[in-house]
């Protein structure tokens, strides 16, 4: 669903089905933003973002949004602690996603 929303807004999307696939893709591409589901098979989103934050710059500094189905206060604390800059609780509105992306990319656009 997230990929569809982004494509409707005209974004070029590269999707991964697992954390290992995402790391492989990062070796080939340098995306502008990462949108990572916390609940993934094998390796969760927290572990993935921790691993990404240990990579060489500029990959380690790519802005990231956590996406989760859990609506508990602990989620936001964990998301920020592990290296996400924003989080969204599913289901979310397309406008909420675009707003977060714009907030995170605005400094890069203005630079």
Beta strands, count = 3
Helix/strand structural class = alpha/beta
**Secondary-structure element pattern, one letter each:** HHEHEHEH
CATH class of the domain at 37-105 equals Alpha Beta
Sum up the overall morphology in one term.
globular
How far the N terminus sits from the C terminus, by CA atoms, comes to 31 Å
CATH architecture of the domain at 37-105: 3-Layer(aba) Sandwich
Identify the quaternary structure here. Answer: single chain
Low-confidence stretches: none
Determine Rg (CA atoms, Å): 13 Å
DSSP summary: helix tally = 5
| Residue fraction in strands | 5-15%
Largest sheet: 3 strands, parallel
CATH superfamily of the domain at 37-105: Response regulator
Architecture overview:
- With 111 residues, this protein is of the alpha/beta class.
- It has a domain at 37-105: Rossmann fold (3-Layer(aba) Sandwich).
- The chain is 47% helix and 12% strand.
- It is built from 5 helices and 3 strands.
- A 3-stranded parallel beta sheet has the order 1-2-3, with helices on both faces.
- α3 (45-52) links the parallel β1 (34-37) and β2 (64-68).
- It is globular.
- The N and C termini lie far apart (31 Å).
- 19% of the residues are buried.
